[in-house]
Design a protein that fits this description.
With 889 residues, the protein is of the alpha+beta class. 31% of the residues lie in helices and 18% in strands.
């Protein structure tokens, strides 16, 4: 049924609708080895018709690339794919080619809009219809039904975000060709009824790195898979950035979703060689309750239609309802913005593009309700991957194309449920918080996420609390309130076990994303309605600040340590070689108490100009002191140089690179040749994933070309040189599993406080936990004393000796009480009293270790300031009060 106007469809009618879609899927089958589905046939060169500026033949992929797509050992490269898509856009009146922008490394980020010529000519109106249905405020039900009969659903399919999952982007070449050229009732009906947004590669930087490296190593004995992060910063975490929206590619993706408001978002991926041949939804429990239930059902509908299509086509070995859940907000921005998220995961072939051959049938061979037909061949190829994902893609298109009215009308119903929500009423983010950078970053996320933000024009009362003018209000009666709510609220992840009495059922990703805890700001949930005079913000910017009059020569500029954004200012001061100091104790000035760690900058015209610009950009206030306080303190080492230990493919170090680049920090990756002269660095960061093996052995020089020498092993000599760097006066900061590496390097007297063995005893797969910080310790300067910490399968410790090295506790878990702040935790009592952050004096050096992950995907920025504190404190000059009062003079 493509255009019913009944809003109360009976069960019988719904069954007829499903049956109609099923009949279409059964009639459209891709046969292994074929690039297109029967009974449709692609146009021959003679049959292709076009007129005017679009005249010209579109060569088939095999003709254009010189070899059939899916050929063993061949991967089409982005440098040839982009011109092919441009050619298709130029010669087909069904395809609009668009370059959305440039990627992090300057490659084109491409979108193909594909539909009938009539729909493309009417595209602006169709986009407006989608927007109107998605935001139904002021739209009557009758008007919505009329729009649903006239509009066209949008189906957004994306491939290639994970660049070693090569099959989907290769398949997209054939999808674009077929949809552009085939003249058949089947394809023409799809194009008449849908607008397809085809993004052949969401990570162009990665496809360039992976596919070009694959081509360059052909015929050699070198490993064929690119060994490092296949994006500059995020690697595999590219689709874990869809809440923080840090990367330019994430922002492009969100801009497409926000503009077109597609009903379906197909996110095409690859899985391990032993996985089901193709996974589709339905997902494993749980699902985030902030995702509308209609979308949950629609996701199941499309996923099962894909399963049905593959089964009818004789494509075996497919599964659903395992491993992948519907919880983690960081992977599914679309699900909070009206689109069913359809994750497909195809099993990998061997060595990217060569056949996977086993001694018997590949993959699981036992049946279940969600895995009904095992794969019965011992071989799996790139061509198989393309055929399987193509069958699923066309089955997904059919499911929507054969039921357009209901998909469009359901957009309206999802919107109505959102804008008529009665509880909660709103979240209020009070003005004047301790960290303006945290508030600004949160507001920018919401603004990018199409969430409406209001700002109070006068003081008001809500929930028995008085809020000042300038406070921000996010009302929950808006289309995309679910996105804001899932980021602002505390997560209560359900206690799920693999079976009764068994181990925990592993979440696919993390279980918490509570933004106020991660960034460090306040957001109050208001359950009932209130009145406030507000304005809707069209943009967000830092709060206005005024630079004070210049202090006298005996005074200084002062910047508090409360904002993590202050390290942007510190990096700028370092870059201009402007002397910078920090107080080691609190002090009072002008009726205000400044905390330990306050930054002081001697007055100069250069300092004033820089601080004025940086304060305006961050919203962080600058004060002027008439006299420098008589307290002890430090002077930051001018030009502090930070080294980053980065094994190939290490994502924690990649995220640190992004942070350092955003802040302007003077850093570089430590290469194998650097170990002989580590003294060029003042501080070295050892993140999660850096191990003794990654340092000593590194990449095997026999398996990789000479340009990878930076990542070759440094042997025990290099391992000892790292120890000598510290004992000779260097600073080392470690976290996560990097702390176990530091323990091995220095024989640190710590032991795990957590039980070994079963995850039934202790389990924390990505949650926010309670923490007590010693804010007088330099590592914790500026950190709230009860700042939650991020814990994702990390460790906590007990100190076994205080005589081996001088040691101070920076942060610990409370001695008793609830350790979980947001997410999921089993066995929290094992954390009682355990230590997390420690600062050590080792020889002449300074070592800071954290068991938790203080630098997780840039999420936990409030906590991450400990890394900056430690890296700048270690190399600094320590000054007694009399010398500090003179600012080192």
């Amino acid at each position: 049924m493509t255009s019913s106007e009944s809003s109360r469809l009976s069960r019988r009618t719904l069954l007829r609708t499903t049956a109609a879609a099923g009949a279409g899927a059964a009639a459209t089958v891709i046969h292994p080895g074929a690039a297109s589905a029967a009974p449709a046939t692609p146009l021959t060169d003679h049959d292709q018709q076009s007129t005017g500026p679009r005249s010209g033949r579109i060569p088939a992929p095999a003709d254009y690339f010189g070899t059939p797509i899916g050929t063993d050992g061949y991967l089409a490269q982005w440098s040839r794919m982009v011109p092919y898509f441009q050619l298709i856009g130029a010669r087909s009146d069904r395809v609009k080619y668009e370059e959305i922008g440039k990627t992090t490394q300057g490659h084109p980020y491409v979108l193909l809009t594909i539909s009938s010529p009539k729909n493309l000519a009417n595209l602006d109106k169709l986009v407006a219809t989608n927007a109107r249905l998605a935001d139904p405020r002021g739209l009557s039900e009758a008007e919505a039904k009329k729009l649903a009969t006239k509009g066209k659903p949008f189906y957004y399919v994306q491939a290639g975000i994970h660049s070693t999952e090569v099959g989907n982007s290769q398949a997209a070449i054939e999808w674009a060709y077929r949809l552009a050229t085939e003249r058949s009732d089947y394809i023409e009906k799809i194009l008449d009824n849908l607008v397809i947004l085809l993004q052949p590669c969401q990570n162009p930087d990665g496809i360039v790195l992976v596919n070009d490296y694959f081509a360059a190593t052909a015929g050699t004995d070198y490993a064929r898979t690119y060994p490092d992060l296949y994006t500059k910063y995020t690697g595999h975490d590219g689709n874990r950035d869809w809440i923080m929206l840090t990367q330019v590619e994430s922002k492009y993706n969100v801009s497409i979703l926000n503009k077109y408001r597609p009903q379906v978002f197909q996110d095409s991926h690859g899985a391990g060689a032993g996985s089901p041949r193709l996974f589709t939804p339905p997902y494993l429990s749980p699902y985030d309750p902030n995702i509308d239930t209609i979308l949950v059902q629609q996701t199941d509908t499309v996923g099962l239609a894909m399963q049905r299509g593959m089964t009818v086509a004789g494509m075996k070995g497919n599964g659903w309802g395992s491993e992948y859940d519907f919880w983690s907000a960081s992977r599914q921005y679309c699900a909070y913005h009206g689109a069913a998220r359809i994750l497909t995961e195809a099993a990998a072939a061997s060595n990217l593009a060569y056949p996977q051959v086993g001694t018997g049938p590949l993959g699981r061979q036992t049946t279940d309700i969600n895995f009904i037909e095992p794969y019965d061949s011992d071989t799996w190829t790139l061509r198989n991957i393309i055929d399987w994902v193509s069958q699923a893609f066309y089955s997904g298109l059919e499911t929507v194309a054969y039921d357009t009215y209901n998909w469009l009308y359901n957009s309206y119903r999802i919107g109505v449920k959102a804008v008529t929500r009665t509880s909660p009423y709103a979240y209020v983010i009070p003005a004047g918080q301790r960290d303006p950078q945290a508030v600004y970053d949160a507001l920018e996320i919401f603004h990018l996420g199409a969430v409406e933000i209001h700002q109070a024009q006068a003081a008001f009362t809500a929930g028995d609390k008085r809020y000042p003018a300038g406070s921000y209000i996010i009302y929950m009666q808006q289309p995309y309130a679910g996105f804001a709510k899932t980021l602002l609220e505390v997560q209560d992840y359900p206690h799920l076990l693999e079976y009764p009495g068994g181990p925990p059922q592993r979440p696919y990703d993390t279980t918490a994303q509570t933004l106020p805890m991660l960034l460090g700001f306040e957001a109050d949930l208001i359950a009932t309605s209130f009145s406030a005079g507000t304005k809707l913000l069209r943009s967000v910017k830092p709060p206005a600040v005024v630079t004070p009059s210049a202090p006298p020569s005996s005074g200084a500029y002062a910047i508090g340590p409360e904002s993590y954004g202050v390290f942007r200012i510190v990096a700028a001061l370092q870059k201009q070689n402007i002397p910078t100091f920090r107080t080691a104790a609190p002090f009072n000035d002008g009726g205000r108490t400044f905390p330990a760690g306050t930054f002081l900058v001697p007055p100069s015209s250069a300092a004033r100009q820089l601080l004025q610009a940086q304060s305006k950009a961050t919203g962080i206030p600058v004060s002027a002191l008439r006299t420098v306080p008589a307290v002890a303190g430090i002077q930051l080492k001018p030009g502090t140089k930070i080294g980053l230990l980065k094994p190939p493919g290490n994502m924690p170090s990649g995220w640190l690179m992004w942070t350092f680049d955003q802040y302007g920090v003077d850093y570089s990756v430590v290469t194998a040749s650097d170990y002989a002269n580590l003294g060029t660095y003042d501080a070295i960061i050892m993140p999660k994933g850096v191990s003794r093996n990654s340092i000593v052995n590194g990449l095997n020089s026999k398996n990789y070309p000479p340009e990878w020498a930076w990542a070759f092993g440094v042997g025990t000599t290099g391992w000892n040189q790292l120890r000598d760097f510290v004992t000779g006066g260097g600073t080392l900061v470690t976290y996560g599993s990097g702390t176990a590496t530091a323990q091995s390097l220095f024989s640190l007297p710590i032991t795990s406080a957590l039980p070994g063995g079963s995850s039934s005893d202790f389990y924390c797969p990505g949650s926010l936990l309670s923490q007590e910080f010693d804010t007088n310790n330099p590592v914790a300067w500026g950190v709230p004393e009860n700042n939650p910490v991020w814990f994702v399968s990390n460790d906590a410790y007990r100190v076994t000796s205080t005589s081996t090295y001088p040691v101070d506790v920076v942060a610990k878990y409370p001695d008793s009480g609830e350790q979980l702040k947001s997410g999921w935790l089993i066995g929290g009592e094992d954390l009682n009293g355990a230590v997390n952050g420690l600062s050590w004096t080792i020889g002449k050096g300074y070592v800071v270790t954290f068991g938790s992950e203080i630098g997780f995907r840039t999420w936990n920025r409030s906590e991450q300031r400990t890394l900056f504190n430690a890296a700048y404190y270690g190399p600094s000059t320590k000054l007694p009060a009399d010398q500090f009062t003179r600012l080192g003079r």
